[in-house]
Design a protein that fits this description.
By secondary structure, the chain is α/β, with parallel strands linked by helices. It contains 17 helices and 26 strands. The protein has three domains: about 100 residues, MurE/MurF, N-terminal domain (Udp-n-acetylmuramoylalanyl-d-glutamate--2,6- Diaminopimelate Ligase, Chain: A, domain 1), CATH 3.40.1390; about 220 residues, UDP-N-acetylmuramoyl-L-alanine:D-glutamate ligase (3-Layer(aba) Sandwich); about 150 residues, Mur ligase, C-terminal domain (Protein-Tyrosine Phosphatase, Chain A), CATH 3.90.190. The chain is about 35% helix and about 25% strand. Strand 21, helix 13 and strand 22 form a beta-alpha-beta unit. Helix 12 runs parallel beside helix 13. The longest helix is centred in the middle third of the chain and has 16 residues. The radius of gyration is 24 Å and the shape is globular.
């Protein structure tokens, strides 16, 4: 419980009707969650406008309303606070309500198209190895110390975010590593947070269904770095042409990492095997459990971040050598008869291309690469033919299948994917809508030593069809089918 006057600090009040000397027990932006003495923040979302639910919130017990327009008809005893942007105000209010937890630990945000989940997970596991108590906010899961909760979004809403950070502070966590999605930046979910550092991985074609253009998507990423304070650091991938763009307007201390050019932190891939990478990290060779040059970037970013956070170099390299990748990221399963199955979250053209190129580099001889891949429904449709073209160009055989069709007809998605195929790529590709059957068919087609890539869903343990999430786990499917072939 807090006084309304306390939690409105720096929220950007334009007008006020009523008193701020009232106690608030909770903050809500969903009227269904309002309780007695709640503060209701009316946010204009993509699907609905919270201003339409102000009366409902009051009926359920809200004592105060934050809004962009004070209603024409107001109620006695209710405080109305007018702000320019309710979503931005919500982040600041939530931070105040939970005693500004981000200022009480080292909060590191990672943004980019690919590599966010691996990078934050590597950092979380790395700092645990080094003896720190940490928090993790990722696509896969949320961790408060050693306590795990289910992840609902890559970056949760402002209230949930500050609640998690508050729990981390209460558990004496010193660091938190979190993914920062472009949606979260645009929707002000991270407003009011104090970051100790920001990391940029890369930028490729994704989320254009939401942002409209690549420029808007890129600007959303840059806005995260623009908001960093002068005591924070900004660490960017110099090998991505958008890296320097992210640094243009930041007040933070600027740093770069690279595999291909001179940078503040440089890494060279010495060897790349299915068992891991041998890297030369700033002049010292280390073997890691992660595979592929794309993971060399993730590891370099983690190494650089740890150095910037004051970790001693030799202790860091020792810990980095035993850090495990997150589930569903180039996760390898071997069959009894020698087939290698790989499950990876690759769901963008760039990520799929990176994984396929890595597998081809790791192949020893004449073994075939069979790829099972789909595209999600109600998401960026422009990438569908590109994904199919990349899969067919870099695989010996391809099975196009359902990913999470959501509210779209999966056959329509597959048709759009097939539009990217020509010539030989058409002949090496088949479509099997049922994902279970697609994985089963890939295993039946494979010979000993062949490699099967199941791409797109990674760690997810469901398949979303017509608004319903059905249990489905690519890793478990692969394991079950391998057993059934005995």
């Amino acid at each position: 419980m807090k006084l309304l006057s306390e939690i409105l600090y720096k929220a950007g009040i334009y007008d006020l009707l009523g008193t701020t000397h009232v106690a608030v027990t909770s903050i809500c932006f969903d009227s269904r969650l309002v309780e007695k003495y709640s503060l209701f923040v009316a946010v204009k979302g993509t699907a609905s406008d919270g201003h339409q639910f102000i009366e409902t919130a009051i009926e359920k017990g809200a004592i105060a309303i934050v809004c962009e327009e004070i209603p024409a008809q107001t109620q006695e005893g209710i405080t109305y606070i007018k702000v320019k942007d309710s979503a931005a105000a919500l982040g600041i209010i939530a931070s105040n309500f939970y005693d500004n937890p981000s200022s009480k630990l080292k909060l590191i945000g990672i943004t980019g198209t690919n590599g966010k989940t691996t990078s934050v997970t590597v950092l979380y596991n790395l700092f645990k190895q080094l003896g720190y108590k940490c928090g993790l906010i990722s696509t896969v899961k949320y961790m408060v110390g050693n306590t795990e909760t289910v992840s609902t979004h890559t970056t949760p809403d402002a209230i949930k975010l500050n609640e998690l950070l508050s729990l981390m502070v209460a558990e004496a966590c010193t660091h938190c590593f979190m993914e920062v999605s472009s949606h979260a930046v645009v929707q002000h979910r991270i407003a009011g947070l104090e970051f100790a550092g920001g990391i940029f991985t890369n930028l490729t074609h994704d989320h254009l269904d939401y942002h409209g253009t690549f420029e808007h998507y890129r600007n959303a990423k840059q806005a995260f770095f623009n908001a960093l304070g002068e005591n924070a650091f900004a660490l960017v991938n110099k090998d991505d042409r958008n890296g320097n763009f992210m640094l243009q307007n930041t007040r933070a201390k600027r740093h770069t990492y690279s595999l291909k050019s001179i940078a503040d932190f440089h890494c060279k891939v010495m060897e790349n095997h299915i068992s891991g990478l041998l890297l030369n990290m700033s002049g010292i060779e280390i073997h890691t459990l992660l595979v592929g040059s794309f993971n060399a970037y993730n590891l370099t970013a983690a190494y650089a971040t740890a150095i910037l956070l004051g970790v001693e170099k030799m202790n860091l390299l020792t810990a980095l050598s035993i850090v495990e990748p997150p589930p569903g990221r180039f996760q390898t399963i071997k069959s009894p008869n020698g087939i290698t199955g790989i499950v990876d979250y690759a769901h963008t053209p760039d990520a799929l291309e990176n994984v396929l190129k890595t597998i081809n580099e790791l192949k020893q001889g004449s073994e075939s690469l069979i790829t099972v891949v789909g595209c999600g429904g109600n998401r960026d449709a422009a990438k569908r033919p590109i994904m199919a073209k990349i899969a067919a160009s870099l695989s010996d055989k391809v099975i196009l299948t359902s990913d999470n069709p959501r509210n779209e007809d999966p056959e329509d998605i597959l048709s759009q994917m097939k539009a990217g195929l020509q010539g030989e790529n058409v002949r090496k590709t088949i479509s099997i809508t049922n994902r279970h059957e697609a994985i089963r068919t890939a295993i039946l087609m494979a010979k000993p030593k062949d490699v099967i890539l199941i791409a797109g869903k990674g760690h997810e343990n469901y398949q979303e069809i017509k608004g319903v999430k059905h249990p489905f786990d690519d890793v478990q499917e692969l394991k079950n089918e391998f057993k059934s072939q005995l």
